[in-house]
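Work Package 3 (structural annotation) set out to generate three-dimensional models for the target panel prioritized at the project kickoff. During this period the team completed the workflow that converts sequence records into discrete structure tokens, so that structures can be stored uniformly alongside our sequence database. As a representative example, we reproduce one entry of 148 residues exactly as it appears in the project archive.
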Amino acid sequence: MQRVETLQDEFNKFKVKVEPLIDDTKVLIQKVNKITDKVDDNIVYLSKAVEKVKTAIDDVVDFKDKIVRKVEPPIVDTITAFSAIVKGIKVFSETWKSKRPEKRYIKHDDELLFDAGNDNDYELEKEYDDINKELNEVRKKLEEMKRV
């Protein structure tokens, strides 16, 4: 029986030493649980914040795309029109320079002011004739105005 009492005595000593450890472990587990709960709460908050940022970025990208879709066609059309005008002026200038007849001035009478020379292009001569006729009419009116 002495062994049982010794064992009982040792168990009581062990129990006295282990009880504070068990209590401390309980407190530690409670603190770990609180920390885990706070971490979970922060993760939820962080997830919501990330979702809001993602939504805001999507809205900005959509807005940019909307602006690009609305602005790009008029800009492209304007550039295309400007380019066409420049090309047209260039072609007109080159054509004008290549088909330009030698101009000779004629006396101020009812004859044409410019002579188209040896230009074989009939349409161009006709345009020059029309221009010359109009210039002669303007010249005559100016001379009449001088007399008055």
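The mean pLDDT is 80.
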